């Protein structure tokens, strides 16, 4: 199972000081957080994609390429790649290039984003959001798997004899997660292709997450990719920790109360009771995160949101120390207990390459056998 962090890259004033970081400070802070994630033994760093204030990560591949050059083991991902408003040709090229530079340490999460105005900024209609997601990904999927593509659709100019470059590393495209909070069509899309499904799992109660994950698992099996238990599931989560739970609540409350997404709404106590948000001790974070398996089953990736709502970088790095030293080692051990043998591990470039080679060898053996039988008949 993979553990990591994801960032939305918001530039939010610290409510305790009133000061907001500059864009440069926030970008540099995201890099420092990624480097710290590798240092403390996490597996994944994922960045969002936004094209409007108060967010800074408008170019995920630029940031991830820089981080790739400064890390050795960390898997680089996105917490949203805007499949609706980005040209799928450019996604195919940009992430294949990143895949080569990072020696395969790349996957990505497709999503529609949560900023309505981004659609007209990039010449699209938000009312076509689902249709854009379906059509654009269908093209992207082909671009990574076919050397020459002829294609015509509704939302971009046709392609004739087109080859995207560079080709995926070792002929194996980056693994794709389809991220959604509330859209069953996206769970269906992930299942159709046999890709991963990532449920943000931050704002919604457990029962909603259960329904979305169960839909994806059942449809994954329907399309013949394996059993429901073999489907590839990822979850988000949100934590703030201190050694003493009362200290965590006291320190985080002013940030929660004015957070851009959920501030000025339910109380901290109501929100933690109704959603996966955990504010407390490392042990409380362990217990609540382990409970995710009760409604999502055995899953492959757990990402935490930790650098938001104006929290200073120093505080976030302290959180990562707690996560890496006291929380994740226990979660690894506990999630591994009683994990059924048939549940797959989280995909990596190495595992995908191994599967591709095995499939190719199987095909070659089948072809040789057919040729021998034909020769015998002759």
From TrEMBL:
It comes from Streptomyces lusitanus. This is LLM class flavin-dependent oxidoreductase. The keyword Oxidoreductase applies. Pfam families: Bac_luciferase. The keyword Oxidoreductase applies. Keywords: Monooxygenase, Oxidoreductase. It comes from the Bacteria. One of its GO terms (molecular function) is oxidoreductase activity. Residues 1-294 form the Luciferase-like domain. Its EC number is 1.-.-.-. Residues 1-20 are annotated as: Disordered.
